Amino acid sequence: MAHGFDDEPAAGTASATPVDPAERAFHRLAGSSLTASFRLAVHLVGDRTDAEDVVQEALTLAWRGWPSLRDPDRFEAWFERIVVNVAYERLRKRRRTPTSLLPDDLADPGEDGLAAAIDRDAIGRALGGLGADHRIVVVLRYWRDLPIEEIADRLGVPSGTVRSRLHYALRELRREIEPSLPRTEEARP
Amino acid sequence: MTDEPIERAVRDWLRDHTTGDAPASLQRHLDRLVGAREGAAAAEGEPAAVAGGRLLRPAGRRVSVVGASRAGGPQAIRVIAAAVVVALVGGGLIYGLANRSTTPATSSPSPGASGAPRPSATAALPGPTSVVDAALVDPDHGWALTAADLVWTDDGGATWQSILPADVSVSTIRAVRFADSRMGWLAWWSEADPRITIERTNDGGRTWSRSHTPGTHVDGVGRVSIQGFDNGHLFVQIETVHSSASCMGELDASDDAGISWLPDVAMPLDPLGFGCAPIWFRDPAHGWTTGGPLHQALEATADGGRTWTQVQPRNPRASGLNLVAYQAPVFADNGQGLDGVLLTWLFPPADPNSAGRSGQVMIDRTSDGGATWRPATAPPDANLPFEDDVIPVAPLGASDWLVAGSTLGSRLWRTTDAGGSWTAIAAADLASPIASLGFVDPTTGWAIDLDGALHATADGGQTWRALSPVAASHEQPSATPSPAVGPGPFTWTLVSSEGELATYDIVDVTGRRDGGWIGIGYDQGPRTVRSDDGSTWVLDPAEPGLTAAAADHTNVVLGIADGPAGLVSVGASANGDSSGGDVQAWRSTDGLQWRTASRIGGDRNAEMRAVVGGKHGYVAVGSAGFPGASILESGSHGAAVWISADGSSWTRVEDQPGFTGAAMTGITTTSTGYVAWGENLPMAEEPATQPPIWTSPDGRVWTRANGSVFAHQAFYPLGGILVGAERWIAIGTRHATEAEGSGSRPAAAISTDGGRTWTDAPVDATGSGVGPSAILSGVAAVGSDLVAIGHIEGPASETTAAAAWRSTDAGGTWTRLPDDPSFEGATMRSILPLDENRFVVFGAANDLNALVNPSLIWVATRQP
Q1: pTM of this prediction?
Q2: Which of A28, B352, B786, B853 has its CA 20 to 30 A from that of B797?
Q3: CA distances from B524 to B581, B748, B852 (A)
Q4: B22 and A37 in contact by Cβ < 8 A?
Q5: Rounded Cα gap, residues B473 and B463, in angstroms
Q6: Cα–Cα distance measured from residue B513 to residue B204, given in angstroms and rounded to the nearest whole number
Q7: CA of B542, closest CA in chain A: separation in Å?
Q8: Rounded Cα–Cα distance for residues A49 and B242 (Å)
């Protein structure tokens, strides 16, 4: 379980108070970002184990770059960008290896018109089949709800590139998911 | 089906499948990283270096035993990848990104209050010039693969020349090996060709011949490793499928340097489903690889990869431990001798309570090429990364070994009596710990550090000198001359990339009617920047008039112009998550104090992207809908225009047919009115047939243009339009044709009828540097020249380089200007002519680890 600096350490963990104020601040900010970052990383790399590695590596990079962050209020966005980039590198190396996205922690999907008619497993498979470029923009756009320009900034690419990737990602998703849709006449009551 | 249900379904799926809290191991890693435990202990008087009973080593790489599934990811595999070839002299110092970016470049522990090491503010983050892989093949000859080039040295690293094959993008290269100073191979893969392409050379990289491995890999490949011998025997190992549950590899062997491939060669069959760890061959017959998710199996072949046998040099239970993780053995004498060493981790039982406990590293030695192994003593260094990183090791002789130290203390340990005694080598000239290590004789070797820097030693690792593997010239015997060669017509000077400007993002700049220039952009919020001479730029104080916004709203500034009533800036006021916003504009008489526009008609759910001042007022262009970039954002419904006499009260002009399916992003004045440009939106059902260019005599009535390649492009906004007396020139970006491959290419068009019709003009689309794709972002007239700027990018857009093009025939043809070293890793966004011989370019460094890309400002001056 993640916990912030001011929280009681979780049982079995040895979290304690760093003495140096700067270290304390990093410890607190990073600690409070762990769960959000981990969840993002899981969506990005599609695997809890890899996500743990991603966040761990991001923590190390963030610790290293901590002195360069002028405004601690922007820690969350800054750290998230590092997580995204570490995940990106990991996915890029992995290329388009199909990945099963999150077999655990399944929630009961709500009914939602046409979207509900789409085979949920097909969505997971389709997302898992996206390439690194496409999967990251999809997750940042539709899970993190980031605007295009901010995604472009997080990835360090032009916004046109993000839009292009999103377009083709959606097209690919549509191509993968559409076969699982019931035919129009069949969908009618 | 439209995008909408797909978007909703994806949103729902992601929301419904959001996982739980972060695992406790991450908190523990954070604790260790920051030194919480060690810091507390140090504060109690315990020496910092041994606080907590274990030296703090803020590293992230590990082969952990926390749970059975823990170490199955690609990370663990790559860890071994580094170890396998770490001392393969003549092979390479594999140094993947996964290794270099995990350990902070801490030096010795700082004597701070906590005693914990501090992150270094000056530590260099990996950049485009970072060495990816490198190796000496003898004391004089060696090669280095960087993010920008493949280079060769004939003088031990003093000078370098490019040996990158003419039509190979460096970003596609997966592995490089040289058997000697003449014979070598490289392997590359791109999405355009599902095969692994092998380039082989017999003349030290001057010329290359091409072949392919047998398999196809339409789903991509992971790591690729090459083993080559001077008799032409070649092994290529390809990581084909990788997930947390399994990893599969393909092994191909050739006895004719890769022209044809031998049958019946394969990776060992791993019952645990992990068969992709790199192979290492001491000679064409004898090789090793590791298996299992924890690398707990060491597999050996004596017949060139046809059959494999599991060997077990080390019994962990004899040491009171029960889990073993092997690094692959490494051998002396250019990696091909009989004397070798094998590093092995031994871990305690894998129960939950063992999480975070250290394992032990053991060393075994062989003098018969690995047939038998004898235990030796490991360095007495508590700093050794027992549970994390691969430990670089280099056997210099039968009993003479070097082992890399960790992030603290000594960089190296050396024994000359096979582990009987170890001597610490401080190697103070290594600023960062060693990630890879290789020697061609007992004194001469190279190392790559965790920052991706290459170092050489001539005294067995006692002292090191930094090498700079950058080609003095790009010598390609058969290549088309690269545009990035030789002196250009302009010299480029970076005038500011430090201080506040380093994190300031310049969005738009305009000349002031009273002289000088003013720009708008972002620091912590909207802020202006100014210059009197174009060379020195100073940030104005933060101005509440620009930053003040309604609750849960943020001001977005996108354009600035000077006009009859003073300065005007335009943009939008966006809500907290930027999912919606309304047009906003600001005006100022001095550029320091700004006031929000008093009234804007048609301001809801829209944005202004650019503004220009005319004789009688202002015209702003943008999009209906916010964000106004693309219909993918459910934002833009089309182009939109506003006019104002005073910059304070704005009227939105009526929507017109030509506004459909596009957004406007730029505008300038002409002798007859205005020309605006923008981008076509990806309308799936009604693809664009006209370029995103509009002309208007008065700002109210607009006519959409016809012709040019820009009529059929979506996603890429036009970079700009230059209005001349005889002709107008538009520059921008087009999608690459099928024959050209993937990505984008520079494009230009000319109009000789006042912007009504456009004809394509040829642009030099030759790729160089990081990749073939190009984005053009701006254009300006500089004396008799036209200059366009932008950037090129690699296939995955993760690497960029600024780029500029020049036309000396009024836009009829465009050629790429020679690259300046400052272009590497940068992008150029806008250009502003200063006089007939100088222009200023605004851009940014593409620093993926920075919160915002640091701004860069170049001043280019014409050569005498």
Answers
A1: 0.47
A2: B786
A3: 19, 36, 10
A4: yes
A5: 29
A6: 60
A7: 15
A8: 13
| Beta strands B693-696; B673-680: pairing state | antiparallel
The per-residue pLDDT for range B5-59, each reduced to its tens digit, is 778 888 888 888 887 788 888 888 888 777 643 333 333 332 222 222 212 222 2
Q: SS3 for B254-289, per residue? A: ECCCCCCCCCCCCCCCCCCCEECCCCEECCCCCEEE
Q: What is the DSSP letter of B461?
A: T
Q: What is the pLDDT of residues A2-28, one digit of tens each?
A: 322 223 323 333 334 555 666 777 888
Contact call for residues B841 and B860 (beta carbons, < 8 A): yes
What number of CA atoms fall less than 13 Å from residue B837's CA on the CB side?
Answer: 5
Location of structure tokens 């091409």: B210
- Cis amide linkage into residue A9, ω under 30° from 0: no
Interface test with B, best of A20, A89, A96 (most B CBs within 10 A): A20
Residue-wise pLDDT for A65-89, tens only, equals: 777 666 666 788 888 888 887 887 6
CA–CA–CA angle B159, B164, B167 (5° rounding): 155
d(CA A138, CA A133): 9
Contacts of B851 in chain A (CB under 8 A): 69, 74, 77-78, 81
Neighbours of A67 (CB within 10 A): 15
DSSP B814: B
CB spacing of B98 vs A89 below 8 angstroms: yes
DSSP state of A105: S
**What is the complex's ipTM, to 2 decimals?**
0.78
Q: Identify whether the C-beta of residue B746 lies closer than 8 Å to the C-beta of residue B709.
A: no
Backbone φ, ψ for residue B501 (5° rounding):
-65, -20
On whether the CB atoms of residues B863 and B486 are closer than 8 A, the answer is no
Strand partners, B566: B563
Cβ-based contacts of A68 with chain B (< 8 Å) = 121, 850
Q: Which of B292, B291, B420, B309 is closest to B370 using CA atoms? A: B309
DSSP code of B49?
A: G
Taking alpha carbons only, the member of B289, B245, B303 closest to residue B84 is B289
Q: Are B493 and B810 in contact (CB under 8 A)?
A: no
Separation of alpha carbons A30 and A37, rounded Å:
9
- Residues β-bridged to residue B425: B412
Tell which phi-psi region holds residue B69, choosing left (phi > 0), alpha (psi between -120 and 50) or beta.
Answer: alpha
What's the token pair of residue B587?
């005006």
Q: How far is Cα of residue B296 from the mean position of the Cα atoms in its chain? A: 33
User: Do A14 and B37 make contact, defined as CB atoms within 8 angstroms?
Assistant: yes
Strands B280-281 and B287-291: antiparallel
Distance set, CA A116 to CA A108, A126, B12, B171, B633 (Å): 11, 16, 9, 41, 22
**Shortest CA distance to A158 belongs to which of B384, B630, B291?**
B630
Q: Do B121 and A99 touch (CB under 8 A)?
A: no
Kindly give, in sequence order, each residue whose CB lies less than 8 Å from that of residue B668, ignoring residues fewer than 6 positions away. B612, B674, B675, B721, B723
Distance separating the N- and C-terminal Cα atoms of chain A: 46
A140 forms beta bridges with: none
DSSP symbol at B636: -
Q: Which of B302, B300, B264 is nearest to B284 (CA)?
A: B302
What is the overall mean pLDDT for chain B? 75
Return the structure tokens found at B91.
């092979």
Count of CB atoms situated within 10 Å of the CB of A53: 30
- Asked if the peptide bond before residue B818 counts as cis, ω within 30 degrees of 0, the response is no
Tell which of B715, B716, B718, B733 to mutate to test the A interface (max A CBs under 10 Å).
Answer: B715
